[in-house]
Amino acid sequence: MADLANHPTNRDQAKVMNRYDITKRMVGLLHNDEAVIGGIGYTNFDLWAASESPHGRRQQNFYMLGSMGLAVPIALGVAIAQPQRKVFALEGDGSVLMQLGSLSTVAARAQKNLCIVIMDNGAYQITGGQPTVTGQGTDIVGIARASGIAQSAWAADEDAFVELIGRALKEDGPWLIGCRIDTSKPVDTTERDPARIRDNFMRGLGVRA
Amino acid sequence: MAETWYEIVRDVLKRHNVSLVTYVPDNVLRPLIAAIEADPFFTAFACTREEEALGINAGAYMGGLRSILLMQTSGFATLPNVIASLSVPFSIPTLMMVSERGTLGEFNIGQQLVARTMRPVLDALNIETHTMTRLDEAEFIVDRALVQAFATMAPCCFILSPLLTGGKVFAK
Question: Residue A67 and residue B85: Cβ atoms within 8 Å?
Answer without folding.
Answer: yes
